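Lay summary

Proteins are chains of building blocks that fold into shapes. Our project writes down both the chain and a compact code for its shape. Here are two examples, one after the other.
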Amino acid sequence: MSDENGTSDSPAASRDTPADQAASVSAGAGAGAGAGPGAGAGAGVGTGPRPEPLRFFGTTWVDHDPGYQGYAARRIAVAVGSLVAVTVSCLVLRFAYQGIAIADLGGFVTLLIVVMFAVCSALAFRHTWDAFAKRPDPDRQASLRGLLAIGFVGSLLAYFFRTLTEAPGEKLHREEYDTARQQHQRRNSRRTGNPSKKRRRT
């Protein structure tokens, strides 16, 4: 024990002080790495474009995540769910057709209703199928809202057949995501330049 300040002059105490300082420095460096965008190399993680989530799939389409909540499981669930929804919808439409037949509205009216549902379902199928490969026009989408509601069976069938090959809309989203990543990498390369040239100049 020192007579002046009451601190210990033993070798063990002198060895503890550098260790404590090193621990505090490393802790401060770790905190500074995540402090902000320009706070070190760790700040670069998570920057750049992010994949857009798909309905029912989230972002599992990017790397085809495995597991019971992964990409393949969701494709199976969406395929089975859409097929069950189509089956139930057809049963409901059959009951509606039987109600029209019981009401005895006439053969022409019955035929007109059947043709209307068939045409709307075909148009809804085509519109939904095309939307998987190309983003639809918002104005046209709003104008077709009633048609898509009547032909909902066609939209469900489009989902079912698309899930047999990929997540609905996966190809479009992957192309857009890859393009955004390439553009982001080119912008970063222009900003950073060639580090070897910078060293030569300095």
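And here is the second example, written the same way.
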Amino acid sequence: MSDTPNTRFGSTGPDLLGPQTTGGGARPAILSLAIKEKAALYAAYMPYLKNGGIFVPTNRPYKLGDEVYLILTLMDDPTKYPVAGRVVWISPSGGTARTPGIGVHFPGDETGVAARRRIEEILGAAVRSGRQTHTI
């Protein structure tokens, strides 16, 4: 299976740096996620986290607590939302019916607040829907 997610997500970039070790420790992985459809955004959004979060399809291995730097593009919005978050959910590849990937918890800073606010503007009342998502 490749690292290319289901096409309803639009596109995701590769983990450009991956968790690499340098003299100062591990650098956060850099991920890019473009979500083109409202249904895909609903399935990926994690509103139950304190600051909100998003599911990012990937086959790369991560550990809970890993730092990741996410560049998020939503729908037709030209704005790119840069978010430095942490891995809080892992759906491993192979052997499950779920899409492999990670859940990234948004930080409580202005970048996380901006991403969460924009996602909830797009989703509106659907945020409270009981439909299945990639994580719950």
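What can we say about the second shape? The first strand starts at residue 11 and ends at 12.
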